[in-house]
């Protein structure tokens, strides 16, 4: 196959940041995707309707009219269910994001005990507002590579049981336990998958030395987990869809004694995913994963218009707008046309 033309895709999980960083990164997402679920973990986090509207306006002013940011509310222990409901009714918030406090970048204001947000979850269940979940426990006694699987056992199983009509997206899945949990769960549960968790296992973190640009959260896992996540992603199941988790940090913040978690994969995201689907001989499943399963789960219309990927080798540069992109220095076999 020399080219793929498919319905315009969406990114169901991205970090667009703010200020100067926003200006640098948004064009890469807007070039490929019609819409994106925008994560609210700014400093300070996006917890109010006014804050979300202002952030949305800043994104649109950089991205232009052909890209629609879908905003999320950052859940805290003190979340006000009425404010959530109002923001959803006004069309500001599409979803709310659960960060266990301390799990990742700018999650200090996150949730310390899931019971603190039970009233919010009840409201969300009632009004059809989606819950996006960073699925890792923060218990320091739990090995960092086990935090996703333990979260499923300790927290997520209970959420799905206690709020049976609540739609839940387990974000950026990294383990065979997560892939299995989502596959076996009711139709209210889905998952996003990043390019890095399809391409890399944890060896990539230590390839000839410490590799900060392969560091993200949830951290890369063993090969058996990567293979399970790949199988889920290319399976054609409507429960699995594209969410890059593109998470740019300044180069100095990555290449540091205490480097930040996050991989900037936005510039070549579609090319990266296409490579995986081709390797798995599943290019016929790519459009579903990239352009159909997400909107159907979110209850949003499919996009009009198409995007074309052409087979063409391109060298991924060492830096893009001063940031180190995923696949830097590698040759990738596809190119978004136009
Ligand atoms: O690697 C990550 N980076 N994982 C997250 O959960 C957050 C993100 C960020 O905002 O930097
Ligand atoms: Zn993320």
Automatic annotation (TrEMBL):
E.C. no: 3.5.2.3
Claim: Metal-binding is one of the keywords in the record: yes
Signal peptide: none
Binding-site positions, substrate: 15-17, 41, 134, 217, 249, 261
Protein's GO biological process: 'de novo' pyrimidine nucleobase biosynthetic process; 'de novo' UMP biosynthetic process
Binding of Zn(2+) 1, residues: 13, 15, 97, 245
UniProt-listed InterPro entries: Amidohydro-rel, DHOdimr, Dihydroorotase_CS, Metal_Hydrolase
Coiled-coil residue windows: none
Chemical reaction(s) catalysed: (S)-dihydroorotate + H2O = N-carbamoyl-L-aspartate + H(+)
EC supergroup of this enzyme: hydrolase
GO molecular function: dihydroorotase activity; zinc ion binding
Any Pfam family: Amidohydro_1
Listed HAMAP family: PyrC_classII (MF_00219)
Subunit structure as annotated in this protein's UniProt entry: Homodimer.
Family as reported in the entry's similarity comment: Belongs to the metallo-dependent hydrolases superfamily. DHOase family. Class II DHOase subfamily.
Protein name according to UniProt: Dihydroorotase
Source species of the chain: Sphingomonas cremea
Gene name in the database record: pyrC
């Amino acid at each position: 196959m020399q080219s793929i033309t498919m319905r315009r895709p969406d990114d169901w999980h991205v970090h667009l940041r703010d200020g100067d960083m926003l200006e640098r990164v948004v064009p890469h997402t807007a070039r490929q995707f019609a819409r994106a679920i925008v994560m609210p973990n700014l400093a300070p986090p996006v917890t109010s309707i006014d804050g979300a509207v202002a952030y949305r306006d800043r994104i649109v002013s950089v991205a232009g009219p052909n890209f629609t940011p879908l905003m999320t509310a950052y859940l805290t222990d003190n979340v006000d269910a009425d404010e959530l409901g109002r923001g959803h009714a006004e069309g500001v918030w599409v979803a709310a994001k659960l960060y266990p406090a301390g799990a990742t970048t700018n999650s200090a204001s996150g949730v310390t005990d899931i019971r603190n947000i039970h009233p919010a979850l009840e409201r969300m269940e009632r009004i059809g507002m989606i819950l996006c979940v960073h699925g890792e426990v923060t218990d320091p006694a739990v090995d960092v590579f086990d935090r996703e699987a333990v979260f499923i056992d300790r927290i997520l199983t209970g959420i799905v049981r206690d709020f049976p009509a609540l739609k839940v997206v387990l974000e950026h899945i990294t383990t065979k336990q997560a892939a299995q949990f989502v596959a076996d769960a009711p139709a209210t549960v889905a998952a996003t998958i990043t390019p890095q968790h399809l391409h890399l296992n944890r060896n990539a973190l230590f390839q000839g030395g410490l590799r900060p640009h392969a560091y993200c959260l949830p951290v890369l896992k063993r090969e058996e987990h990567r293979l399970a996540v790949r199988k889920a992603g290319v399976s054609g199941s409507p429960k699995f869809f594209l969410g890059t988790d593109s998470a740019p940090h300044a180069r100095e913040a990555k290449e540091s004694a205490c480097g930040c978690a996050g991989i900037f994969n936005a510039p070549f995201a579609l090319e990266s995913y296409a490579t995986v689907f081709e390797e798995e001989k599943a290019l016929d499943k790519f459009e579903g994963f990239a352009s159909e399963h997400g909107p159907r789960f979110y209850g949003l219309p499919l996009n009009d218009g198409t995007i074309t990927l052409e087979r063409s080798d391109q060298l991924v540069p060492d830096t893009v707008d001063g940031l180190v992109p995923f696949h830097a220095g590698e040759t990738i076999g596809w190119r978004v046309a136009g």
